[in-house]
Design goal:
2 copies of one chain form a homodimer. Helices cover about 40% and strands about 15% of the residues of chain A. Chain A is α/β, with parallel strands linked by helices and about 450 residues long. In chain A, helix 8 links the parallel strand 9 (about 225) and strand 10.
Chain lengths: ~450, ~450
């Protein structure tokens, strides 16, 4: 049987997401649409028509201020600012759809676990079990300051704390309310059996949370866990917790060993290989013919703002890219940091002469994501090649112009993938976890770390 | 001209709200509806049909565990548990309506101001300016523990901190983004003019927040501020910040001086009398005739769970009401705390012999709210009497059976109020602030404390 492909639409409640400058494109609607419920409802319906697994909403809590040592460039090019909270848009989209899932970034650094548990249980109820949580530990210095964090934790310790954070929310989601706690026994005047609602009494290094959870068990209990580990400790965290790990490899050659090592890390956590879906980010421009697609790309490039994406990259890398001279090959710099940047981009294209202008141009469309431009057959070929050669399970699709690019993908690529037997023509079940893992699997499998310490009432088979 | 009445529907994303036990009533839909988007969308449409100002959603972050020294009773009777986060349901309801406002409780104790500002700006955008924030400082000991707060601030200090908290969010909402910051200048490749997005650089006793705000100016900028000060320091806080102050006076005689003193406190803050609407909580049971309404009440009382409401009251008062003997007049107790309770209820009904059973029975329908039971004319008469004798501006309407009680109010009381010229037949403007204060007033007036320290760019008339 042909291995099925998973598809998430990757975006943000902000403007242009990973293709800075596209707000100037005549088909862009993000510049005002991002703050309009109707925009999101329409997009959700489009994606459900295309049998996508989910709409995946990134989030950020501060501005990118490394470039030129100021946030000026980020503000000018709408680099993730202005932006809205993504959690509140989900139930409206869920109400307009019946199967599409909704993944949402939420930070373990800025929100207490008790609230996070309540929020995601609420979203899971309101979407009938179609929510995923993209767990991030947050690193942006500017955001930390806004939350009063003057001494952020070192990277690895941030993940240690996040491990305990996950322990707390798992206990609230999985081990506080028994499945049949709500009895609605009119005769006994009992809505809920108090003996079946348990405190969690978590006492740890970072958190003390007695519980119980405020919410009754939602369809999935624990939302589908997304993560993007990008470091040693981050990968370990992802291998332990994530059900979908997303990555942005520049090409299949580099992706293949990366994916293999993630799968090995997952196995080392005692999990089945299929317990984690590996999802690669790709920027797609599709049109009826290859030639039209290339023309489309050229139009998009005309609207691109390389300076905006350099502000983004400077924030990610912690290097002020404005200090690099236009036209000067990165090879000519002595600084280790710049050599690190060069080494990174050389992997993407070894033969290209990388200057700051080349980096800006490369990233202006879909930032670091591989760009796939072509006819439906060309795009489908390329996605299939990624699955075959890099062993990824699916894709976070970035549309360069939004929402038009997503509509194009659904109208052109989706039928091609379905014709090839690569993509569902109907959803497997009713929850997001079932979309990823098959009908009937609404809950975390027993091998997941959330179940490592079962409370007595679960051991008893309840 | 007849003074217009303001109406909010007061409820919670939980079960039965202030009338414990009604989940057993055949017309109750809260027991499953509270976690269903469709339920909320239907309710919002009903309220908009009835020209209500807003749907007002309470929230809580812990369980009531004073009664019997345990949360058992609260869980059994679904006393605000299970419950969902109310913020996430608002955009779905906003999308299904065009004028109804949405007020939502959010705690200054549990959420950082930077996040609160982003969340409410997002909601104000997504609802086209129809959001209110009910500012609470939170007191529930059980909730504090879940947020890792082992030494809660003393009452007055909680309000000092909340004053500074408001200062932070006002700066983010009102003083960070200039109105015309977003320029979308294609030629200049400038989406937003960085010179018009300002840091707030708040440095205070409790918070340090540099900003700028993540969100562009929303239709109302600052959401309509709701508050329910119930103490000296709380009243001061409300008089300074609130645009709608809600109260639960037991009768008009006690309400009149209370309302007068609030209006004086508002004036003392340099605000106009009309800058604050005073909203009284009432529990309404309406039917085509008085007799039918009384029958309806009797049915509701058959389903009431006095023990549930005693658990609620024990949490509010910090007194374990289970220790009082059934049938024993509160006069017979020596404890100051019990005498305080007696003095409270004696004001409600001086001639009643108050026992714990009487308290439970009184509160089982609409807790401490005055109960208004009768035909549309009777209910309208009583609401008009409250306005005339106590000088309140409107009502938080609690429906005993939900959503049926709200539907009854809209179908029966609303036309009667409209016939009397008391209630709008169409909305004044498009934002919630305009519903409260008239067409054109989408923003806080310049007399409001939020504008006390104007930043230079606003002084310049921008």
């Amino acid at each position: 049987m042909t291995r099925k492909m998973h598809l998430n639409a990757f975006t943000q409640c902000s403007i242009c997401h990973h293709s800075k400058g596209q707000w100037k494109h005549p088909l862009d609607r993000t510049s005002t649409g991002y703050r309009d419920v109707g925009y999101w409802v329409d997009l959700a319906r489009t994606l459900e028509r295309g049998c996508f697994d989910s709409l995946f909403l990134a989030d950020v809590h501060g501005t990118y201020d490394v470039y030129k040592g100021s946030r000026e460039t980020a503000v000018k090019h709408a680099v993730q600012i202005p932006g809205n909270d993504p959690t509140v848009i989900i139930p409206a989209m869920a109400h307009a759809t019946s199967h599409l899932g909704f993944a949402c970034t939420y930070s373990t650094t800025y929100f207490p676990p008790y609230q996070t548990a309540k929020l995601f249980s609420s979203l899971d109820h309101l979407s009938d079990g179609r929510v995923a949580w993209n767990v991030v530990t947050s690193y942006l210095n500017d955001a930390n300051k806004n939350f009063g964090i003057t001494e952020p934790l070192p990277h690895d310790q941030r993940y240690d704390r996040a491990d305990e954070y996950m322990d707390v929310v798992y206990k609230l989601w999985e081990h506080s309310w028994e499945e049949d706690a709500i009895v609605r026994d009119v005769e006994a005047d009992t809505h809920t059996d108090p003996a079946k609602v348990h405190e969690i009494n978590h006492v740890g290094e970072w958190f003390n949370v007695p519980g119980p959870h405020m919410c009754e068990p939602s369809p999935q209990r624990t939302p589908v866990i997304f993560q993007a580990g990008q470091s040693g400790r981050g990968n370990e965290f992802a291998a332990r917790h994530a059900e979908a790990i997303f990555c942005i490899h520049p090409n299949t050659e580099l992706a293949a060993p990366g994916v293999k090592s993630v799968r090995e890390a997952v196995a080392a956590e005692g999990r089945a290989p299929d317990d984690v879906k590996i999802i690669q980010g790709v920027a797609v421009i599709v049109a009826p013919t290859d030639e039209e697609a290339r023309l489309k790309e050229r139009t998009c490039r005309r609207y691109a703002s390389p300076e905006g994406v350099l502000a983004l990259f400077s924030g990610w890398a912690g290097i002020d890219m404005s200090e690099l001279a236009s036209g000067k090959n990165l090879e000519e710099y002595e600084s280790n940091a710049i050599q690190g940047v060069l080494s990174f981009f050389s992997k993407i294209a070894p033969d290209r002469e990388w200057t700051v202008d080349e980096i800006g141009e490369f990233m202006a469309i879909g930032s670091l994501m591989p760009k796939i431009v072509g006819s439906p057959a060309t795009v489908a070929d390329e996605l299939e090649r990624w699955m075959a050669e890099a062993d990824v399970d699916g894709f976070n699709v970035h549309a360069v112009t939004q929402p038009a690019g997503f509509e194009d993908f659904v109208d052109l690529v989706v039928p091609e993938l379905q014709r090839r037997g690569r993509l569902r023509t109907d959803y497997e079940g009713s929850t997001l976890r079932e979309s990823f893992f098959g009908a009937g699997r609404r809950r975390l499998p027993e091998t997941h770390v959330a179940h490592r310490a079962l409370p007595p009432w679960r051991k008893a088979g309840a």
